[in-house]
Every structure is written in C-alpha cells, then in structure tokens.
Amino acid sequence: LLALGVATLAGVPTPTEGLDALVCDLDGVLYRGDSAIEGSTDAIARARSAGVKIIFATNNATKTPADYVDKLASFGVRATETEIVTAAIVTAEECERRGWQGRSAFLIGGRGIREALAGSGMELLAGEAARRAELIVASNDPEFTYDHLRTAGFALHAGADFIATNGDPTFPASDGLWPGAGAVVAAVEKVAGRRAEVMGKPHKPMMDAIARRLEGCERIAFVGDQPATDLDGARSMGWITILVLSGVTDSAQAGSLDPQPDLILPSLAALELG
Ligand SMILES: [Mg+2]
C-alpha cells in the first residue's frame, strides 16, 4: 500500500506541469495600482518561452485593451490587444452574439465600456431620449449621478434589458478601496427592483469569452488574487486554480478557503512551469 501510494504521488503532475495556457488576472497579480509586482514580468516571459498561451483577464471595464497594452508595456510585459479580455470587451461581445447590433442603450460607465459598446454597433443614447433605451448597461463611472439613476430607472421600468459589466463592490486604489461597478449596479438594481445580468468573472459570459480564445488548449490555469472572482470562475470551467498572495488575499485568508486552490503562491514570481 505504501509503495502504491508513493508510485501514485510520483505519477501525479504538479498543477503547473504541461500547461497549455495561463489566464492572468491583472491587479494584484502583475501590478498593484501603478507599481509592478516584483518578478511578475519575468514569470510571464518564462511562460511565453515555454510556449504557454497567455490571456490577461480583468473585470475593470473603464479602460480599453490598448490602454492595458500600454500599461503592461510600462512594466516590461509584452502583450497584444487580442490577449486582453476586459469585462467591457466581454459585454460588447455578448451584445453582438445576441444580435443586439443597432439596439439603443443607455450606459453608466467609463471610456472602456463606451468604446467597446460603440464598436459593437449599439446606439448609445443620452439625455431624455435615454429614458426609452432598450438596454441599460451599468458599470463603474466616477461621474455617476442621481440623473443617471433616474434615467436608467425609467428605461428599466419600461422593460429594458439590464446588464452589468461586473459586480466587484470595490477596487484597490493607492489610498484604499474605492467603490467599484458593483456599488453602482446595486443602486440601479434598487431603483429597478430587479437584478442585472453580470458579464464579468466569475460569471459565464467572461469565462466563456476566455475559453473561446483558448480553443484547443487542454491544461488551463487561472492565476488570481480574488477567490470569489478568479478562483470561482476558473473552477466553474474545470481549470487549475492558482491563488497569489500579492493582492487582496493574505495567507491566513488563503488557509481558510474552502475549497482550497490547487496551488497557493506568494506571487507570480514563484510560478514554476514543469
Ligand atoms: Mg485582482
């Protein structure tokens, strides 16, 4: 029995052995705010030279893929726009997949989601006209006002579809936690008396959007710092889960997670590809 146990252990691949693809969350994994997390740049380079396909996945819907290419380049990480999956890109892609091109929409959100929706052929309304929008898209918007809430409320009570880019209640800024899209979405939901359909991780639209980009890959690992978004999303797809302690989760919190991630690393720098 002992011999069998040893043989079995020896035959079990480490979670990162033979990986085809690595899905990387951004904030808390590659950088914190505007500073790179030490060693993350080299880890991405090592994965690339091992032939591992990389996808960068963030729930932040305020920036465009081009913004992220620039931001990653400033840390020495080479990326293409097609490798970057934001909740904004997923929202626009989902509208297209549903054949909603040409539909009118009222958006509460920043530049990233605005450009993505306009690019997918949605007609973005403003002012009084927006009260008759066929779709409400709620996201994080630093210019969010009572007027936005009233406009969205009129449209939603008239039967508009209701989508949220992501549900994150907060996001980490240099001086602490700032209100995230989830806070704005909750306000709109309260007025509407119904729930938004959320696009970002851990929800299906974003997980499926990532999977479409990794077609043909069999061993996929997701590395993130947020158990409730990164790890739950990855687990729902049957992917390998890697938690890094360089972001919002510390080792005590990591130890009490149930279920446990497949691998816990101090940071991406410790990633070893078998
Ligand atoms: Mg994160």
Specify the overall morphology. elongated
User: Tell me about the biggest sheet?
Assistant: 6 strands, parallel
Question: Are there runs of 5+ residues with pLDDT below 50, and where?
Answer: 1-8
Class based on secondary structure composition and strand pairing: alpha/beta
Percent of residues in helical segments?
A: 25-40%
Query: Helix tally?
Result: 10
Cofactors and ligands: magnesium ion
* First-residue to last-residue Cα separation: 27 Å
Task: Give a brief rundown of this model.
It contains ten helices and 15 strands. The strands form four sheets. Strands 5-4-1-13-14-15 form a six-stranded parallel β-sheet, with helices on both faces. Strand 2 and strand 3 form a beta hairpin.
List the helices and strands and how they pair.
Elements: H1 2-11, E1 21-25, E2 31-32, E3 35-36, H2 40-49, E4 53-58, H3 65-74, E5 84-86, H4 87-97, E6 104-108, H5 111-119, E7 123-124, E8 135-138, H6 146-157, E9 161-164, E10 170-173, E11 176-179, H7 181-192, E12 197-198, H8 204-213, E13 220-224, H9 227-236, E14 240-244, H10 251-255, E15 263-265
Parallel strand pairs: 1-4, 1-13, 4-5, 6-7, 6-8, 8-9, 9-12, 13-14, 14-15
Antiparallel strand pairs: 2-3, 10-11
Bound molecules: magnesium ion.
Residues 25, 27-29, 224-226, 247 line the site of magnesium ion (MG).
Structural description of this entry:
- This protein has 274 residues and is α/β, with parallel strands linked by helices.
- It contains ten helices and 15 strands.
- The protein has helices at 2-11, 40-49, 65-74, 87-97, 111-119, 146-157, 181-192, 204-213, 227-236, 251-255; strands spanning 21-25, 31-32, 35-36, 53-58, 84-86, 104-108, 123-124, 135-138, 161-164, 170-173, 176-179, 197-198, 220-224, 240-244, 263-265.
- It has a six-stranded parallel sheet, sandwiched between helices. It has a five-stranded parallel sheet with strand order 7-6-8-9-12, with helices on both faces. Strands 2-3 form a two-stranded antiparallel ribbon.
- The longest helix has 12 residues, at 146-157.
- 45% of the residues are buried.
- Bound molecules: magnesium ion.
- Magnesium ion binds next to loops.
